């Protein structure tokens, strides 16, 4: 008996120590796994910061690139604005390089002429298209420090014309990486897609000029976006757990390494406590019964929790009308959850499910579709997701959604999935489809009515204009005859009244013509094509100069401005906008008229016409585009007040817009936008065409 107790005690002690060591190994593995996950999360966080910094730099490069071709003053102003918005120290200096690779500008005050055409980053900018390029670290030929070149190419008429660079000190990037709260031997690195270190939070100077080994996973698979690995550091040889994240735009990789020593250091105290506890338990075998009882208690509690969870899952399936099923084709074994039985109106306690029985319930009109879907799923080894109808025993029809997937444990020979009753949802969808059909019918009917009304309105407009012109010509003709025959018999007041009659008749004729023109523009069919707005503006400017060759006006029309629009209607737009600028600068010395572009934003191309003429009061800006509304007296500037209204209607038909800004005596600016993609107006076509 003593021997048996001794053997039992020895066996129990050995078992206890074995379990203790195994738990420690498991705990160690868990800590390392969590540390690896933490390294990945830290890499994600730092990647977000780096992405933001690169995005800020990219915005600055785009602004500088846009300003460079304009003028040195404009570029200097943009340069000051951009550098003021960047974090202090992020950029050492900026450079502009011509197409041959020679530095033509830098803000260090160093004379231009340095050649960088042999640098890899410049070659990447020359050959890589319009994108942000992050180059490998280079030692600056201007300052001697290690720099990371962040650049954008410049183009002129689609041809590479040089590049604009931000020169980012590697040491500054290293300090940014070092802000991540890590222990002494942990590090954060920024790695070029080619493998070169861009910056390193520890001993950055030693990392410059070095590359990570080619077996790193982010170099092995350039398309991978994130991952983890365990190796010794290439610079200091410290064993670390690494997590990495690739930046989406620049393809730069952020690598976070947590040293094994720092990760496992907090575990040492726990390990010592475990050893002490194991020793105490070894000497107190009498406590084993209580320990086993505690384990049994926990087991019962877990079993009870599992039972409660199963009941909750069944209740959730009942509420969601979702049931679970399994099917083994080899044995024919089929299981249905209680909810599937309820969907089919069966008693789970007496019903015996089968694969063949399910097919018998499938609606006859849906069997062919379901059989084809099952065949495709089996052939391609993909999941099945199919909606079909089932017929219950009482003849009622239900809509169900069948989801199925192969069981990976059974190597594709077993299937499992869910069945959801979606009858109410399907009926709602069908009702919505019927409603949409009815709405579409009503819209088409209303469109036909509007088309007929527009035609009637057009006929009415032409009829009214004709009826107005006949008496108007009579008034003007008789006034002219009176002036020619009896001018000497009229008093000065009579002659003045006669001139007013003639002037009013002419103005009325212009109003009628503008009214007809606006009606025609509203009904004209849009024929969208590529329109060279720069050339169109020059053509209009030539016509305006011919009306008054003696006027001295400085024209500035930007090159390369174009849009997708109707050329005839855009001619009307440019004639009105440039014609207004010509008219309202008539009393301005050193008159100046500009036509320029504002770039693209939110799918729209933006353009402006600006002058330094009479301007207008912004308090009346809401009247600018109202027909026959004028902000100046007729004695000051002639016109009918229809031009801007026509401009607005034409641009709205194209899917664009127009707005005006100005100040009295300081000129005006009218900016308009056109979609980058042509817009087909719903009412621009007849019902038959639709």
UniProtKB/TrEMBL annotation:
One biological process term in Gene Ontology: osmosensory signaling via phosphorelay pathway
Protein's cellular compartments: Cell inner membrane
Entry-linked PANTHER family: BACTERIOPHYTOCHROME, TWO-COMPONENT HISTIDINE KINASE
GO MF annotations, alphabetized: phosphorelay response regulator activity; phosphorelay sensor kinase activity; protein kinase activator activity
Keywords for this protein: Kinase, Membrane, Phosphoprotein, Transferase, Transmembrane, Transmembrane helix
Name the UniProt record assigns to this protein: histidine kinase
One Pfam family it belongs to: PAS_3
GO CC annotations, alphabetized: plasma membrane
Domain PAC: 384-434
Listed PROSITE patterns: HIS_KIN, PAC
Stored CDD domains: HisKA, PAS, PDC1_DGC_like, PDC2_DGC_like
Entries under InterPro entries matching the protein: BphY/WalK/GraS-like, HATPase_C_sf, HATPase_dom, His_kinase_dom, HisK_dim/P_dom, HisK_dim/P_sf, PAS, PAS-assoc_C
Signal sequence coordinates: none
Organism: Hydrogenophaga pseudoflava (Pseudomonas carboxydoflava)
Transmembrane segments: 274-296
Name of the gene encoding the protein in the UniProt record: cph2
Membrane topology classification: Multi-pass membrane protein
Keyword Ribosomal protein annotated: no
Histidine kinase domain residues: 463-678
Catalytic activity annotation: ATP + protein L-histidine = ADP + protein N-phospho-L-histidine
SMART domains membership: HATPase_c, HisKA, PAS
């Amino acid at each position: 008996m003593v021997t048996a107790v001794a053997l039992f005690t020895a066996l129990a002690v050995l078992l206890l120590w074995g379990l203790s060591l195994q738990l420690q190994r498991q705990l160690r593995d868990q800590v390392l796994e969590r540390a690896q996950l933490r390294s990945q999360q830290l890499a994600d966080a730092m990647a977000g910061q780096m992405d933001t910094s690169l995005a800020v730099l990219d915005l600055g490069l785009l602004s500088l690139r846009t300003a460079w071709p304009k003028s040195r003053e404009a570029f200097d102003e943009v340069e000051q604005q951009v550098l003021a918005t960047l974090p202090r120290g992020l950029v050492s200096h900026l450079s502009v390089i011509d197409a041959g690779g020679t530095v033509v500008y830098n803000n260090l005050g160093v004379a231009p002429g340095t050649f960088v055409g042999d640098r890899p980053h410049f070659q990447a900018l020359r050959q890589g298209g319009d994108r942000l390029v992050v180059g490998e670290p280079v030692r600056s030929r201007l300052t001697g420090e290690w720099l990371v070149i962040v650049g954008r190419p410049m183009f002129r008429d689609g041809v590479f014309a040089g590049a604009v660079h931000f020169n980012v000190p590697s040491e500054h990037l290293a300090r940014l990486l070092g802000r991540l709260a890590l222990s002494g031997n942990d590090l954060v690195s920024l790695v070029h897609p080619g493998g070169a270190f861009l910056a390193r939070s520890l001993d950055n100077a030693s990392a410059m000029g070095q590359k990570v080994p080619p077996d790193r996973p982010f170099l092995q698979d350039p398309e991978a976006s994130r991952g983890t690995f365990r190796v010794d550091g290439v610079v200091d040889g410290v064993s670390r757990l690494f997590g990495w994240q690739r930046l989406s735009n620049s393809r730069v990789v952020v690598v976070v390494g947590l040293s094994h020593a720092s990760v496992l250091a907090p575990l040492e105290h726990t390990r010592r406590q475990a050893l002490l506890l194991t020793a105490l338990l070894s000497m107190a075998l009498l406590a084993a019964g209580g320990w086993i009882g505690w384990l049994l208690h926990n087991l019962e509690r877990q079993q009870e929790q599992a039972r409660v969870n199963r009941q909750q899952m069944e209740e959730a399936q009942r509420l969601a009308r979702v049931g679970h099923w399994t099917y083994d084709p080899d044995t024919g074994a089929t299981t249905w959850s209680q909810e599937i039985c309820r969907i089919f109106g069966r008693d789970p306690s007496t019903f015996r499910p089968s694969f063949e029985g399910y097919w018998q319930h499938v609606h006859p009109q849906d069997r062919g579709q379901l059989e084809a879907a099952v065949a495709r799923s089996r052939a391609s080894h993909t999941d099945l997701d199919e909606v079909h109808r089932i017929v219950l025993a009482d003849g009622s029809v239900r809509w169900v959604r069948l989801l199925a997937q192969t069981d990976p444990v059974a190597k594709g020979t077993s299937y499992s999935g869910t069945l959801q009753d979606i009858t109410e949802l399907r009926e709602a969808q069908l009702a919505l489809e019927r409603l949409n059909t009815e709405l579409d019918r009503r819209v088409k009917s209303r469109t036909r009515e509007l088309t007929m009304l527009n035609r009637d309105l057009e006929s009415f407009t032409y009829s009214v204009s004709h009826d107005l012109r006949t008496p108007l010509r009579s008034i003007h003709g008789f006034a002219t005859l009176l002036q020619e025959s009896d001018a000497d018999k009229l008093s000065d007041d009579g002659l003045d009244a006669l001139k007013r009659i003639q002037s009013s008749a002419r103005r009325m004729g212009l109003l009628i013509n503008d009214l007809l023109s606006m009606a025609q523009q509203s009904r004209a069919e849009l024929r969208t094509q590529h329109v060279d707005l720069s050339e169109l503006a020059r053509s209009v400017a030539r016509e305006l100069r011919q009306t008054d060759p003696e006027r001295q006006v400085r024209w500035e029309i930007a090159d390369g401005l174009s849009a997708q629009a109707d050329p005839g209607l855009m001619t009307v737009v440019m004639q009105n906008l440039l014609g207004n600028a010509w008219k309202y600068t008539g009393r301005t010395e050193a008159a100046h008229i500009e036509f320029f572009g504002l770039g693209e934003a939110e799918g729209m191309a933006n353009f402006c016409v600006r002058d330094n003429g009479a301007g207008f009061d912004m308090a009346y800006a809401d009247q600018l585009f109202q027909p026959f509304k004028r902000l100046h007296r007729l004695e000051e500037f002639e016109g009918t007040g229809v031009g801007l209204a026509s401009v607005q209607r034409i641009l709205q038909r194209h899917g664009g817009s127009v707005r005006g800004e100005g100040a009295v005596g300081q000129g005006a600016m009218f900016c308009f936008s056109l979609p980058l993609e042509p817009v087909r107006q719903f009412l621009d076509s007849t019902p038959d065409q639709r």
